[in-house]
Design a protein that fits this description.
Layout lengths: L3 E7 L1 H4 L6 H12 L3 E8 L3 H13 L5 E5 L10 H8 L2 E2 L1 H12 L12 E4 L2 E6 L3 H22 L10
Parallel strand pairs: 1-2, 1-3, 3-6
Antiparallel strand pairs: 4-5, 5-6
């Protein structure tokens, strides 16, 4: 099954061109290694309206099955990705976030500081990932085994029952 991704980097410095978006680049490479497609990719500053607007545009256009956000999930006052995501998510998918956090804590105790959320808007899965390239890819690797089945379920694919 082919999965269509959107990768949204949330970073003031990357949006201003002061820092290369390594997280977005590495997530894109990880998705492509699986044979999946990156349909949308963008960088926005840590501004709730800009994050929210991009998530709505991608989800409501039905051009992507999964949106991965990277950045803005920590404790800084500028970290607002979870709040923007919660504004657009219609149904939560806490098991994904719990699994990523649990796996992350086995690597670094700082993973418990993540405020990331995951959920569904329409037929699109939204997953917040850490801003560090290593943390983002490690978190993605945790949920990779269930993404195809999640997308099948979201699209009412008749084959989804056989993949339990």
């Amino acid at each position: 099954m082919s999965i269509r991704f959107g990768i949204l980097t949330v970073s003031d410095r990357s949006a201003r061109g002061e820092r290369t978006d390594r997280s977005g680049i590495e997530l894109s490479a990880a998705v492509k290694i699986k044979g999946w497609e990156v349909r949308e990719q963008a960088i926005v500053p840590d501004e709730i309206d800009q994050i929210r607007n991009k998530l709505i545009a991608w989800c409501d256009a039905h051009t992507v099955d999964v949106v991965l956000t990277t950045g803005g999930t920590g404790f800084s006052n500028r970290d607002v990705t979870p709040e923007a995501s919660l504004d657009v998510i219609e149904r939560l998918a806490p098991g994904l976030t719990e699994a990523m956090r649990r796996a992350g804590v086995s690597i670094t105790p700082h993973a418990m500081l993540s405020r990331a959320v995951s959920g569904i808007r329409g037929k699109t899965l939204i997953v917040n990932l850490p801003g560090s390239p290593t943390g983002a890819v490690q978190s993605l690797e945790v949920i990779l085994p269930v993404l195809e089945h999640a997308v099948e379920l979201l699209n009412d694919d008749p084959n989804s029952e056989s993949n339990h």
